[in-house]
Write a structure and sequence with these properties.
The chain has helices at 2-17, 23-35, 41-52, 58-63, 65-74, 77-97, 133-166, 173-179, 219-222; strands at residues 105-109, 114-118, 123-124, 130-131, 186-191, 197-203, 211-217, 230-232, 238-240, 246-251, 258-270, 288-293, 298-306, 322-326, 362-370, 374-379, 388-398. By secondary structure, it is of the alpha+beta class. Helix 2 packs antiparallel against helix 6 (77-97). Strand 12 (288-293) and strand 13 form a beta hairpin.
């Protein structure tokens, strides 16, 4: 008996505790239970109403205690659970049938035998759809402002996150130019393929812009020369070979792969220079400056110094990718005047083929992306006592 009473106890609590349930709405769940006690159907329904609405007076309880107790004791655990589920389903149906707004709660009114909305202090109306006076409107407005502020803060956080992603340093001057076509030439911060932030100079005007400088040679300002080149000062600081036929500066792209190379070289010469010779690309195939890439070397551009510029290169790998500067011999000294500045566009030219409006700049489009090193070499086929060339300025860019 104790076990039976225990499983029936939750149902009794449900009946006496859910004061928001209307008796008429739950009678279909309860009448079967009460009929099992031997009560007539009208009396069973009335007893249910009194219990569920929590209107059971001592006199009512006194009339039916044995019937209720007998009923609960006879109800199996399985049947008790079914009746509980039935009552709770009717409670869930309330909110589905009546769309209470603004936080209103759906309740079952016994007196009206219908579903209604129970509103908070801010709202009123059948569905809590109206402000409850000016105070309610003001309070609601405050709630809406708080909600908007919360949403704006969340949105601001998302915007900051997106901005942080977008504002990451670009990987090249080309990307900077793509982000802002009005970007001017100058120093910018970029991110290397390994994620390191570095400062580079970007050329944003010539040939569409977006060029990243990988070599800058200016010994008069820096006082140094890159790679295996050395500084000499015959009246002007220059970069030249350090003995042997060639001296080389090698640079790597800081932006990873590239498909184009652009740059220039200007310089001065010492005594008589002979232009092209028959050497291969790895050696001193010219008196001048050779710009190549990769290993084995691939030709990019040649800057040739010759007493009378030849319009044809001796080596097939050079093709038409060269500039020649007439080098007037001034004896055993450097020609350091403006006219003697080779490949500058102001240098003397006695053959039509050495005239070029693009001097000293060159541009080479490659067959595809590469990460080749780039080599700038000063080469001559005689030693420094007989002839020499010194670079005063050179820049190399990739894109």
């Amino acid at each position: 008996m104790e076990s039976t009473l225990l499983h029936a106890l939750p149902l009794l609590v449900l009946l006496l505790g859910h004061t928001s349930f209307g008796a008429a709405d739950t009678s279909s769940c309860m009448v079967r239970l009460f009929m099992k006690s031997g009560l007539s159907q009208p009396r069973a329904v009335q007893t249910e109403k009194n219990l569920i609405a929590f209107k059971v007076s001592p006199k009512d309880i006194g009339r039916t205690p044995s019937a209720i107790l007998a009923l609960l004791l006879k109800t199996s655990a399985d049947e008790t659970q079914r009746i509980q589920a039935c009552i709770m389903r009717k409670s869930d149906a309330c909110q589905k049938l009546v769309a209470c707004q603004n936080g209103g709660k759906c309740v079952l009114e016994d007196s009206a035998k219908s579903y209604t909305c129970r509103c908070n202090d801010i709202f009123k109306g059948s569905f809590c759809e109206l402000f409850n006076g000016l105070a309610g409107a003001v309070q609601r407005l405050g709630l809406k402002v708080d909600t908007v502020l919360t949403e704006l803060q969340a949105l601001d956080t998302k915007v900051d996150d997106l901005a942080a992603l977008h504002i990451k340093p670009p990987v090249s001057c080309k990307e900077i130019k793509m982000r802002n076509s009005a970007s001017e030439s100058g120093s910018y911060e970029i991110r290397t393929p390994l994620g390191k932030k570095i400062k580079v100079y970007c050329e944003m005007d010539r040939e569409g812009g977006g060029w990243t400088r990988v070599l800058h040679m200016d010994p008069a300002t820096s006082g140094v020369c890159p790679g295996a080149l050395r500084v000499i000062n015959p009246g002007l600081k220059l970069c030249t070979r350090n003995g042997g036929q060639c001296g080389e500066a090698t640079v790597k792209s800081v932006t990873g792969a590239f498909t184009e190379v652009m740059g220039f070289v200007t310089g001065y010469k010492y005594r008589t220079t002979d232009g092209f010779s028959s050497g291969d690309i790895e050696g001193a195939y010219l008196d001048g400056v050779s710009v190549t890439r990769g290993s084995p070397k691939k030709h990019l551009w040649s800057y040739v110094s010759q007493s009378h510029c030849s319009c044809t290169a001796r080596s097939a790998f050079v093709g038409s990718h060269f500039y020649c500067s007439d080098s007037i011999d001034h004896g055993r000294k450097w020609t350091l005047n403006q006219q003697g500045r080779m490949w500058s566009g102001t240098d003397p030219c006695r053959n039509a083929c050495c005239k070029n409006d693009n001097k000293p700049w060159f541009v080479r489009k490659l067959g595809g992306p590469t990460i080749d090193d780039i080599h700038v070499r000063v080469c001559l086929n005689q030693d420094t006592n007989d002839e020499d060339i010194g670079i005063d300025h050179s820049d190399i860019y990739v894109r």
